[in-house]
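Lab notebook, design round three. We kept the backbone fixed and only want residue identities now. Task for the bench partner: fill in a sequence for the structure below.
Input structure tokens:
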């Protein structure tokens, strides 16, 4: 990692992504989710709902499931990605448009979203559950 101008460069599988040195805090009130701030933190128990804004945590979670960043075509706003998703292999993501991690995280941060997810189901199997939450929206 090389520091400079308030950002770090991370190299993930040959892709360079610029991320801020500090992740923004989780917004809103979340008494039932365990907050995760680094890739070294994990669920207290299988099935536990987790919440983060940490780019490294989100990316690691997705890559462990071979998911890639995506958006729903036709939902773009002023040239930026619209609805953010992940395309999981074998789950029929033909209607999704793959985008770069950089574009996914720029949109995630610009909208001040929280990433709510599970690492494992209550039976211990890996979980693909996630939800993006905008704590500033009443209907989110």
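Proposed sequence:
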């Amino acid at each position: 990692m090389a520091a400079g101008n308030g950002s770090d460069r991370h190299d993930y599988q040959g892709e360079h992504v610029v991320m801020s040195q500090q992740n923004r805090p989780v917004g809103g009130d979340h008494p039932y989710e365990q907050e995760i701030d680094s890739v070294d933190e994990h669920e207290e128990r299988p099935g536990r709902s987790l919440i983060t804004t940490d780019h490294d945590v989100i990316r690691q979670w997705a890559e462990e499931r071979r998911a890639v960043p995506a958006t729903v075509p036709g939902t773009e706003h002023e040239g930026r990605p619209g609805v953010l998703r992940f395309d999981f292999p074998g789950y029929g993501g033909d209607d999704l448009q793959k985008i770069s991690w950089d574009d996914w995280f720029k949109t995630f941060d610009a909208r001040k979203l929280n990433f709510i997810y599970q690492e494992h189901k209550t039976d211990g199997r890996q979980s693909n559950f996630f939800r993006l939450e905008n704590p500033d929206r009443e209907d989110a």
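Keep this in mind before ordering anything: Helices lie at 55-64, 101-110.
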